Known about the structure:
- The chain has 49 helices and 26 strands.
- β25 and β26 (about 1425-1430) form a beta hairpin.
- By secondary structure, it is an alpha/beta fold.
- The chain is elongated, with a radius of gyration of 39 Å.
Amino acid sequence: MDAFMALICPNSPSVWDGNRTSECFDNMVLGFGVNAATLVMIFVVGITQRSAGRSWTEIWLGTLMLSEDCSGKHARKIFLALFSCHWSLFVIFGSGFTFKQSTAWRLYCSSQVVSQMLSVCCLVRPLLGIFNLLATCSSFETLRCLKESSIVLLDIVFGISINIIRIKRSPSKSSSLEESLLSTDMDLEEGCLKNSGNTQSYWDLMTFKSITSVMNCGAEKQLDFEDLLQFPADMDPSSCHNALLSSWQDQQIRNISNPSLFRAICCAYGWPYVRLGFLKVFNDCIGFAGPLLLNKLIRFLQQGSGNLDGYVLAMSLGLTSVLKSFFDTQYTFHLSNLKLKMRSIIMIVIYRKCLCISLAERSKFSEGEIQTFMSIDADRTVNLCNSFHDLWSLPLQIGVALCLLYTQVRFAFVSGIAITILLIPVNKWISKLIASATEKMMKQKDERIRKTGEVLTYIRTLKMYGWELLFSSRLMDTRSSEVKHLTTRKYLDAWCVFFWATTPTLFSLFTFGLFTLMGHPLDAATVFTCLALFNTLISPLNSFPWVINGLIDAIISTRRLSRFLSCSEFKPGLEQTADSPSPSFLNEQSEATSKDAAIAMRDACCAWSSSDEKEWNMVLNHVTLNLPKGCFVAVIGEVGSGKSSLLNSILGEMRLLHGSIQSIGSIAYVPQVPWILSGTIRDNILFGENYDPRRYSDTLKACTLDVDVSLMVGGDMAYIGEKGVNISGGQRARLALARAIYHGSNIFMLDDILSAVDAQVAQWILNNAILGPLMKQHTRVLCTHNVQAISSADLVVEMEKGHVKWVGSSADLSVSSYSAFSPLNECNTYLHIQQEGSMATNNEIEQDLLLEKDATHVSEEAQKIIETELRKEGSVELDVYKNYAAFSGWLITVVICLSAILMQASRNGNDLWLSFWVDTKTGSSQTEYSTSFYLVILFIFSMINSFLTLVRAFSFAFGGLQAAVKVHDTLLYTLINAPVQFFDQTPGGRILNRFSSDLYTIDDSLPFILNILLANFVGLLGIAIVLSYVQVLFLLLLLPFWYIYSKLQFFYRSTSRELRRLDSVSRSPIYASFTETLDGSSTIRGFKSEDFFLATFTRHVALYQQTSYTELTASLWLSLRLQLLAAVIISFIALMAVIGSHGGLPVSLGTPGLVGLALSYAAPIVSLLGSFLTSFTETEKEMVSVERTLQYMDIPQEELHGSQSLNPDWPCRGLIEFKKVTLRYMPSLPAALCDITFTIGEGMQVGIIGRTGAGKSSVLNALFRLTPICGGCILVDGINIADVPVRDLRSHFSVVPQSPFLFDGSIRDNLDPFRVNEDFKIWKVLEKCHVKDEVEAAGGLDVCMKESGMSFSVGQRQLLCLARALLKSTKVLCLDECTANVDAQTASAIQNAMSTECRGVTVITIAHRISMVVNVDNILILDNGNLVEQGNPQALLQDEFSRFSSFAKASTM
């Protein structure tokens, strides 16, 4: 063995020569061993390719060629590969490029297997070659170290270039999902790279030159979406979401019970992500070249040598910084591109899931929770990209730094390591607590966003009830719980920051202390190399807790998303089946019925429960039903009998527990509460279909929308606000019907559409739409209480408590026990007076309709009702920062700033004291102090620094929490007091964006980025002061440097602000569209329009993607230039130090200790300058969230106060007087009420009727002061209501709104939120409202209602709202279409109950049913905002020319 070793290593030891690894070890292990390992890996790649049909000759030839290329010990001469456009791939400089290398390259260009083998060679070789470099650089042979560094660096560049070319050569169908480092195309035959038409040069790509045009534009004007960069094709959300979707579906197949979104993401993006990891390895390793070169430079300065090594080292220090800046920005760019791609895809997958999941299955998630998936969980999941690479990269950086520390201070660094190790279990424990607090906080955030959405949706009703403060207090309770967990998290974060920020200071204290106590002398090279390494440690040590927290947040979010995405999807098809006992029989039955039946239900049992629920409350019980093709079917039944559930079960929205449901052909669905899109009238009708002018015109006429549209500003291009806020209830119903008719489906499912319109319009719709030529040949299923519709039906289905009670023709309906449907019951015997009126023709009705001119005020608002979202220009104003400081508290702001400045001063003092220590020990003036004295002072500095770090961390946490609480509370208070018009003109999604994304920024990320900004600022300030003190010549560079720096940041900030605002503006449509889709998902599925809505949403996401991509490119453009600027500073200081050491400068540059300090301070400028401006611009971007919330703190407010105080029993009589009242919704619009005057006597019951949109609801708006009147006055019991505090006024009236409002909570809370009534009284009122049985069946008064009472039908919800109004017991009761959705029998019973319960109460009833107002004391008939007729209804019925008489005729047709 000895003889063998002597043969191999004749002139050197085998491993160690006393100072470093021996030359023999370098050659054999780090040279030959590395190359041998490389060749083995090459051959393995070749073998794997052999299985794909490659020849052995090709593999052996490739290996031989590459062995010459890879295994000779550094045989390659340095060459530069310059890629050209058309003719050649590279030009070789130098005479050493061998024949075999040329042959290998030609093989690469012609052979796929060799190209892959060469790619592996060039990736593995530099990685393994780093060990040889480290061994070489541990000696003091500068030029040898530089030579080895150049070779490894060349390997890296060559390896990356080869892999880029290979990736670009791969066919387009390759599974590679990430854009390669450089964007090029390869001509396979010529072996050369060709730029595609829009491909930039490599230099432009590396320097982000493409953004320059955008930045020039941003400096001159306000940016718009047209000015943004186009993102790469592989980032287009419309095409790239399929990768994640297929991976997720594969996960569901493999792991049915618990599929993991995390694993799906890994499958889709794992390889591109790993490739970026290689780039990060190179980037991190280059970062350690700085401290090594610094060490050699300081040792050179100490030795005072006169050779050129100093200049080479000084320039190398600068060039290393330049190289790292390019690697750093490229890594960030490609990682961020991957993140942007993932974010858009996750958003689309969530949206797609909402389109595909049935209402029953979705019931296990609240709306707030689903909205949080989109607004917060998607972003948190994307942060996995950062966290996972940092999870291995940060420990690697820490480990390498510790290894280099060992070479400087030997085992003394173990004392510093001990502190780090002791903190690991502490931080682990803190991380667990943070994870727990985050999970609890997210639950409360979900609930808060749900409640906020509830308030925004029903704000009009809440204001009429006077319940704004009640609901805001409920919301504040949830916010308090959220803030409680946020506080826990923030203070735990503060402890994390404290532990990790003080670690480097304590590390240096203990390391230098132990080093000197071990008897080693301190010198400048050792101290300042260690300080540079400590500074290198600061970033990974400080980042690690945030990485852990981000990882925890991301894992929690992926689990939440996995649970949502794993829900079973709605399967669009002809047939649904469930646990059927005899499938063969059902198949036969299906075949038998499919020939003549459009819909066939066989023993179907359905429930509104998700697949996870073990217990369910069946809503439809063993329903068997066959509906023939082309017939008109009327579904009747009492309130809550299961009519709407029957339609939903056919649509597949309910869970089918037993039996089967089959439908033949396409379906169009109109829900009971019409779903209206934000958009034009035409958009709402076309619903993604092509425009056919003739069919479109016929559809408008059939739904009597032609007159309405002709009177709107903009016609059918008039804009409809969110949920149709600016059109009447009748217009919403007709618009939804028009949508269904235009689509011309085989089956029409119409849920009680006639109840929202008046009798004349209902008759027209029945004759010209439902029974008209456009729908005549189709199957029509109508849930209704309308007598004319029932009598016109081919088939009547009567429902009772979830069962089909009776099926037959309308002629046989009298046989049924459901005898309430008799024409005589509608208006009693008064209607016999005008019996001949029932023969009126459709032409007469049409004439009446045209004469009536449905000129509703709200329709005329349509064109300008939705205001464009405001976007400020220029820099974020100083007032925004002042406001945020005021929210945090001025005292805490001062404490934060002082603690940060003093903390930095203590850190700089610590370093200056070290330099003084070094100089006194090594200098000529021996002012002798004991080692313990120096250590005590160092200890004092460390303790002061630790204390101030703790103060800064906790004061920042406290200030951030104060601001978060105050911003939310102020924003909520301002919005609660805003007038109704503000909510009509502002989409709810836009407001909700403030409460979700913007508030999340203020809660979490803004304090974090502000903390970093402050730390960077005081850090730069400290460095500038120390450098100016140590090197006076630095002041010469400071002025031009600051000039260039300020120009750069000004040029960048003017664009970045605009991009951030565009980002916020482009984000709002995503959330608005998402919220809207949640409400109308059943309608979308009914029309099979999922693809259309997914495409629309994808366009919104693509615009958001484009904004983010431009923003990213701009920030990296700046980062690169700043880092290059910092590299100039490092080179300058290093060169001045070398020149000064030669005595070439007239100014003394100080002692070796101070020069070492200057050089160690210059190194972090690279990262600190970039970090400072990045954090500054990020802060400015995050401040846009504060700016956006401040916008909504400055909106108009209602006049809450009044000069007239009220008695608790006011109004005691109920006398209401309107005196020449005029009301306009906007100054530019016609009056909604035109100078109307009437008196409602005390205790009278008055009915208000008129065409849809005639101004009926405007009377209530004026009475409740929802909209201020322009002229006249309204007196109640002689008191002008304008003088009464508005909340007092509303709380003294009772109202039942047109759209029933039930909130999440117990039935008791819904009926009696202030808990002032006894149970027996509540039950008594429920019985009178005919809803007691349903409440008892649901579980009593304490049962909790979810999702706005979806477990009750619309009619039952109206009855509960009526019960709520009766419990309030006021002298004025307003009913706005409160019985529109209940059957005639129940409506009659309610009318009787009202007549007995409301004696002495002034009742104002707005109704379309003549039967509801035929027995009142007085009738008011409105038309176009004018009072055209009033009087006793019985007297008016006698007059055949009265308007009321014509309404009565229409109701019996």
